[in-house]
Write a structure and sequence with these properties.
about 850 residues, alpha+beta, Jelly Rolls, Immunoglobulin-like, TIM Barrel, seven-stranded antiparallel β-sheet, six-stranded antiparallel β-sheet, 12 helices, globular
């Protein structure tokens, strides 16, 4: 999957720059907590000579002292001081400069104590631009202690050309755990677009590191409730005055555990977690997250019952009891509607359902990481909700949402991506989307070249201070397992509360690494860790993992601790054909073989890139056929498309909205479904599932079964075709047909099953059809109640809309009531008897 890897490599590189800064965001108010500053340079005197050119390019930077002065909003500032004036004449293209400045008196600054670096900057209106509205980008680097030159990028400030009219105050977030002796400033001539041409000229002033100090413990610990307790909503507590710890992420050093006792007496224990709050903003196509309060302890819970709860919190330091706190809170009834409850396996062992008994067939896609920040999810999740989608697969990767994916993060988790995932998960809850959270990617254990191999950056690698001499040791080393369990504990405490967390997924396609991993070691680890999660996750979220193709590791699918199977399928002409039929066949085989719910976790008509997919599937027929193949082939829902950030700009959400419009009113996902067997030798591909009240079919013309006719703008019209279903109960049946690309109704056909075969005429079509099959509607003979009313029972297709009509002469009919049959069998409201002879009928609308 080469393009997917190159795209990942791109964002992995960005992640190493931590997070770019934002234009015009002021430092957080001191009302959130006490701040401490380290002033690098306010240019109160001429310190220009302390800035040393590192000769990293052809251009020679000039740094001189100027009487232009910016008044700082962060640290004390002398109004009579000045600034540094920079000039860089670019004699060539693709050039760069790097200038360093050592701290005064050989000072060493520990960045762990600081959250931001801020400065004031003013560009000359004649400064060189890149032709795309930018003066370029200024990168802040740091000089690690004992190194002597900048080796770590902290953040980047991108200067808009419109800023050349005065001083701008800039705050950049700093999230690095190292001691530094100075800073570096780098400008690359082509960082933001075309090369800067001419001379870059700007003034800079008030370079200051800022951060929150740890509050002094002044009293006993306390539990502070931060929001109102509501059913199925996140309830959050802050724990104050907790003793300081050398590593708040390590439960062997300090651990806080809350035990909630529900009104019914049931108890649930949840770990508290170390938290840092941020404020997000957006500029120049990038998100910037600024610390807005001191780090602190938080505890999360999602109430499941109305009434009064008791909370007991135990604090331990170094495995010794420090304090026990108690409080209570009350959950009152609210007006929230919709489905509620954690996701589990439905009794049919084929679909998911929430614990309130509502079916949860999945309609969704991968939305694994952002391109320009969490703002992408605002757009994506909103569009998905509008399209009737209810599922997203999200990765915790080193380049996005990963809290322990880079050197230095082993049991010392990155808090800014953790906060970003907080935001995305809560947004998913609001939009009714269920998240499958992928915890690790195979690249993190790969030695391949380029972005495909990230073992060298893995914190478990011995070269980064971890316990593992090689990749396979991650799966066999007991120290590594203990460390990983600590990460799982943190994830449970922070995200486990959410009933919209559908499942934990250990790995994305770990079988890619089987050339240097022992599959038996991997499988044993998965069995053990899945068991650990089932024991320690108080919310009992489902657990799975994924493989790059269905048959990659049969032994893994047999692991009893895995709740469902998830594999990935990418097609290409000449390799795999006819997605609908293939998806249905695979889903049926693996569900029957392993007696588990199955999921097609990734799908595309080409694995290499969206461009490659469009080359072989320009009208998205193959993509549509795969989506429907998953939905009506016996898997837990649609096949989950991969190229989310290409589908979104093209607004191709019709792929999902059409399916939701057609299947949503049906019984899809409820009760038990069996695969329909179609008569062989037909001139089309047909798949489908038969349920208790209706049956669902998907038909693809032979000329359109991907890749057939994939690049043809139009395909021949299919006229006078039929489809034959076998082993069918005798009787009369109707089929409502739809266009799967638009959900447009195409007509109703009728057939009578004889000798076990049901032959249904098809409307004219050229690509595909979706059909809802149901027996002839019936009004069950009414019963007369003691109060002189009639009670009807209507049996019809699920979602059928009918008008009940009344007549006393079988000639004139009067409408009584219009009903929608939500379950397939419904009771009609009692109808008064007004005549000695009455007749009733149900007419489909």
């Amino acid at each position: 999957m080469n393009l997917r890897l190159s795209r990942i490599g791109k964002w992995a590189a960005l992640a190493r720059l931590i997070f770019p800064g934002i234009l015009g965001v002021l430092f957080a108010s001191e009302s959130h907590g006490q701040t401490t500053n380290y002033i690098v340079d306010q240019f109160d005197t001429d310190t220009a000579g302390l800035y040393t050119d590192q000769n990293w390019g052809t251009a020679v930077p000039s740094v001189t002292w100027s009487t232009n002065n910016a008044l700082s909003t962060v640290g004390p500032n002398n109004p009579g001081s000045g600034s540094a004036f920079w000039q860089i004449r670019w004699p060539t293209t693709n050039d760069q400069i790097e200038v360093t400045r050592a701290f005064n008196d050989g000072a060493v600054v520990n960045l762990t104590n600081f959250s931001n670096v801020s400065f004031d900057i003013m560009f000359s209106s004649n400064s060189a631009t890149d032709g795309n509205g930018s003066y370029g980008a200024l990168e802040f680097d740091c000089v690690p202690q004992g190194v002597g030159w900048p080796s770590t990028a902290l953040a980047i400030y991108t200067a808009e050309a419109s800023n050349g009219n005065g001083w701008i105050h800039v705050t950049l977030p700093v999230n690095a755990n190292l001691a530094i002796t100075g800073i570096g400033l780098k400008i690359q001539q082509n960082r933001t677009g075309s090369n800067l041409i001419g001379t870059t000229a700007f003034w800079i002033d008030n370079i200051i590191f800022s951060g929150f100090t740890t509050p002094t413990v002044t009293g006993p610990p306390q539990i502070l409730q931060l929001n109102t307790a509501q059913l199925w909503q996140r309830l959050e507590f802050q724990i104050t005055n907790v003793p300081a710890a050398s590593n708040p992420f390590d439960p062997d050093v300090i651990r806080l555990d809350g035990t909630f006792t529900s009104p019914s007496g049931k108890t649930i224990s949840v770990p508290a977690f170390w938290y840092q709050g941020y404020v997000r903003s957006f500029s120049g196509g990038t998100e910037y997250d600024i610390v807005d309060e001191p780090p602190q302890w938080r505890l999360r819970f999602e109430p499941r019952q109305i009434g009064t709860y008791a909370l007991s919190l135990v604090i331990q330091t170094n495995n010794e009891l420090y304090a026990t706190l108690t409080t209570n809170f009350t959950v009152v009834s609210n007006s929230a509607s919709g489905r509620f409850g954690d996701v589990g396996i439905a009794p049919n062992n084929q679909y998911f359902q929430t614990c309130d008994g509502n079916a949860l067939p999945l309609n969704g896609e991968n939305v694994a990481w952002w391109d320009s920040g969490t703002y992408d999810y605002d757009t994506w999740f909103g569009s998905m909700q509008n399209a009737g989608e209810n599922f997203a697969r999200v990765w915790m990767s080193p380049w996005c949402f990963g809290i322990e994916g880079n050197p230095g993060t082993l049991s010392n988790y990155a808090l800014d991506p953790a906060w970003q995932l907080d935001y995305v998960l809560q947004l998913a809850e609001q939009e009714g989307i269920y998240i499958q959270l992928t915890l690790d990617d195979y690249r993190e254990y790969s030695s391949a070249s380029g972005s495909d191999g990230q073992w060298t950056n893995n914190p478990y690698n011995i070269i980064n201070g971890g316990p593992c001499v090689n990749q396979n040791a991650f799966f066999t080393n007991s120290t590594a397992t203990v460390l990983y369990d600590k990460r799982l504990r943190y994830l449970i405490g922070r995200y486990g509360y959410s009933s919209h967390l559908l499942a934990w997924e250990f790995f994305n396609e770990i079988d890619h690494d089987y050339s240097y991993l022992n599959s038996n070691s991997v499988d044993a680890w998965i069995a053990s860790q899945a068991g650990w999660l089932h024991t320690n996750d108080p919310y009992r979220h489902l657990v799975t993992t994924s493989l790059s193709f269905a048959s990659a590791d049969p032994q893994q699918w047999a692991i009893s601790q895995l709740d469902f199977l998830s594999w990935h399928t990418y097609f290409s002409p000449g390799y795999q054909l006819n997605p609908a039929q293939t998806m249905a066949g695979d889903a049926s085989y693996y569900r029957q073989t392993y007696k588990k719910v199955v999921q097609i976790g990734e799908y595309g008509t080409d694995w290499e890139s969206w461009a490659a997919s469009m080359a072989v599937d320009p009208y998205l027929r193959g993509l549509r056929q795969g989506i429907w193949g998953g939905a009506l082939g016996g898997s837990a829902g649609t096949a989950m498309t991969w190229w989310w950030d290409s589908l979104a700009p093209a607004n191709d959400y019709w792929l999902f909205s059409s399916l939701a419009a057609i299947l949503g009113p049906t019984d899809w996902g409820r009760a038990t479904w069996t695969n329909i067997v179609f008569q062989s030798g037909q001139q089309m591909t047909a798949i489908g599932m038969s349920g208790a009240h209706d049956s669902l079919v998907y038909v693809v013309a032979s000329d359109a079964a991907w890749p057939n006719g994939a690049t043809n703008a139009t395909l021949p019209e299919q006229q006078g075709q039929t489809v034959t279903l076998t082993d069918w109960p005798a009787g009369t049946y109707y089929a409502q047909w739809y266009d799967p690309s638009s959900a447009t109704p195409l007509g109703l056909s009728q057939g009578t099953a004889t000798n076990g075969n049901l032959v249904l005429p098809l409307p004219g079509f050229s690509v595909d059809l979706a059909g809802v099959i149901f027996p002839a509607p019936r009004l069950v003979l009414p019963a007369i109640s003691q109060n002189g009313t009639l009670q009807f029972q209507l049996t019809s297709e699920v979602g059928g809309v009918y008008t009940i009509e009344q007549s006393d002469d079988l000639s004139t009919w009067t409408p009584l009531v219009q009903v929608t049959n939500q379950t397939g069998v419904m009771e009609i409201n009692p109808i008064p008897l007004t005549n000695s002879a009455l007749f009733f009928r149900a007419e489909q609308n």
